[in-house]
Amino acid sequence: MQKDQKKAGVLISYADMAFSAVIGIFFTPFAQRMMGMSEYGVYTIASAAIGYLTMLDLGFTNAMVRFTAKSRAEQNSNQEYKINGMFLTFYSVIAVLSIIVGLVLYFNFDGIFAEGLNAHEIGRAKIIFLVMLANTAFSFPMSVFSSIVNAYEEFIFLKSFNLVTNVIKYVAQFLVLFSGFQSVGLAVAVTVVTIVSKFVPLVFCFKKLHVKFYFGHFDKKLFGDIMNYSAFVFLNIVVDQLNANTDKMVLGALVSSGATAIYNTAYTLQAGVYSLSTSISGVFLPSLTKMVTLKKSMDEISDVFIKVGRLQFMIMAFVMGGFVVFGQRFVHLWVGEDYALVYPIVIFWLAYSIVPLSQSIGVSILQAQNKHRMRSLIYLIIAVFHVLLTIFLSREGSPLGEENRILGPTVAACFSNLIGQWLIMNWYYKHVTKINIGGYWKEILKITAVIGLYALAGGLVMRFVPLDRGFAASGIGAWVALVGVIGVYSLLFLPVAWRFMLSPFEKGMVRTALKKIKGVLKRK
Q1: Among candidates 479, 518, 510, which has minimal Cα distance to 314?
Q2: Tell me: the pLDDT tens digits for 75-111?
Q3: How many angstroms separate the Cα of 208 from the Cα of each of 113, 154, 184, 204?
Q4: Residue 286: which pLDDT band, with cuts at 50, 70 and 90?
Q5: Who's near 246: CB < 8 A, 6+ residues apart?
Q6: How confident is the model at residue 287 (pLDDT cuts 50, 70, 90)?
C-alpha cells in the first residue's frame, strides 16, 4: 500500500511540476501585458522581499517530517503527540516573529528602494508586501498539518491537494487580471486561496489521521536533536533564498522596477530548466545510500556519478545550444522587444549552471556519505560573495556601465559560481569524496564538442532561414514557424547523438525504452 502511495505521489508531483512549468510560460507574458512592466516588477520585488521571511522556518519542516516518522516507526505515540505540540508552538512563535520582522522591513521600504523605485511604486510594493505578510504569518503554524500528512506517507492526498491548490491559484490569478485588477488584486487572490486551502490538511489530520497535540511537555533532549538536525537544513534554506531573491531585491533597490521585471522573466525560464535537471538526480539517493552502506568501491559510485552526469549534461547542453540558436526569436515572440535582455541573461545562466546541475547527483553522494555539511558551508560562502558582488556591479558607477547594470546579478552569479561550484566543489569531489572527476570531465568535453559543433551549424543555417517575413513574421504563423524549425533541429540531432555521443549503456537504455513502448502498443 505504501509503495503504491509513493509511486502515485511521485507521478502526481511530476504532473504538478509539468503543470507549473507549462502554465508559467503562458501566465508570465499574460501578467506582463495586463499589468505593464513597472507593475509586474513591483509585484516581483514584494514577492522577493517576503521570500526572506520564509527563512524563519529554520529547517523545521524537514525536521518535523523526520522526527514524526521516526516516532511512528518506533510506535511511540506519546512522543509523536509531544512533537506535534512542540512544532505547533514553534511555528506559532515564528508567525509572530515574522509579523514583527515583516513590519520592520515594511517601514524601511522607502529607504531601501528610494534609488530604484518612485513614490507610487514604493506605495504599491508596501501594500502588496502587507497582504503577502498576512499570508506568510498564517501559513507558518498551518504548515504543521501538511508536515504531519507527509510523515504519515499519505502521498496521494498530499500531492493531489498540492496540485489542485496550484491549479486554483492560477485560475484565480487569471480571473483577477481579466477583471482589470493589478498587482494588489493578484496578491489578495493568492492569499485568499492559500488561507482557505490550509484548512484542508487540518481537517484531514483530525478526521482521517486522528492526530493529537500534547502541550506543556517540553523535552530538552528531543529539542536538542531537532536543532542539530535542522541546523544545516536551515543553512541550505538561507543559501536558496539568497540566490533566489537577492538579485531581484538589489535590482529593485538600485536600478528599477523594469529591471526586476526583466530579470524575473529570465528566472521563469531558468526555473523550468532547473526542475528538469534536478528531477533526475533525486531518484538516486536511496540506491547511493545503499551502495555506501554496503561499502561499495568508489569506482562503482564514480561510475554512477559519471553516467548520471553525462545524461544531465546532455539534456542541459542540448537545451543551451537550442536556446543560443532560437532563443532570441523565442523571447521576442514570448514577451516582446522590451524584454530583449532576457536572452543574454538566460544564456549566462545556462553557461555557468550546466556543470553544477550535471553534478547534482554529487549532492546525493555527499548525503549518503554524511559529508554534505561542508558543501552547505561552501555554498553559503559562495552565496554571500555573490550578494556582495551583485551590489557592487548593480550600483551607480558600476564597472559594467550604466546601461548594463541590469546584468550585474548575472555576471556576479557567473563569476562566483565558476569559483565555487566549478573549481572548489570539483576539488572537493576529487580529494575528499574521492569521485573520479577526471573521468567526468573527459566525458563532458566529448559531449560539448558534439553539441557545440551541431549548434554552430544550426546557427549558420538559420541565418538563411527567414523567420521574420511573410507568414512567419507575426502572430500564430510566427509561432508555427518557430516550433517547426525547432522540431527539425531536434529531429536531425537524434542520428548525430546516436552516432557520435551516446555510450553503449545509453544506447541500451534507448533500446529498452523502445521495446517497452512497442510492447504497450501491441497490447492495445
Answers
A1: 510
A2: 888 888 888 888 898 899 999 999 999 999 999 999 9
A3: 48, 10, 37, 5
A4: very low
A5: 48, 386, 387, 390, 409
A6: low
The lowest-confidence range among 18-22, 292-296, 468-472 is 292-296
- The two most distant CA atoms of the chain are separated, in Å, by 75
d(CA 457, CA 334): 25
Mean per-residue pLDDT of the chain: 85
Residues 6 or more apart in contact with residue 262 via CB below 8 angstroms:
37, 338, 339, 341, 342, 345, 406
- Other Cβ atoms less than 10 A from the Cβ of 304: the count is 18
Q: Are 142 and 202 in contact (CB under 8 A)?
A: yes
Helix (H) / strand (E) containing 499: helix 475-500
Rounded to the nearest 10 degrees, how much is the dihedral formed by the CA atoms of 285, 287, 290, 296? -110
CA–CA separation, 144 and 147 (whole Å): 5
Q: What is the pTM of this model?
A: 0.83
- Count of beta carbons in the 10 Å neighbourhood of residue 251: 29
Q: If you compute the radius of gyration of the chain from its CA atoms, what whole number of angstroms results?
A: 24
| CA dist 340 → 126, 279, 333, 344 (Å) | 29, 29, 10, 8
Half-sphere exposure of 215 (CA within 13 A, CB side): 4
What are the backbone angles phi and psi of residue 399, rounded to the nearest 5°?
A: -65, -15
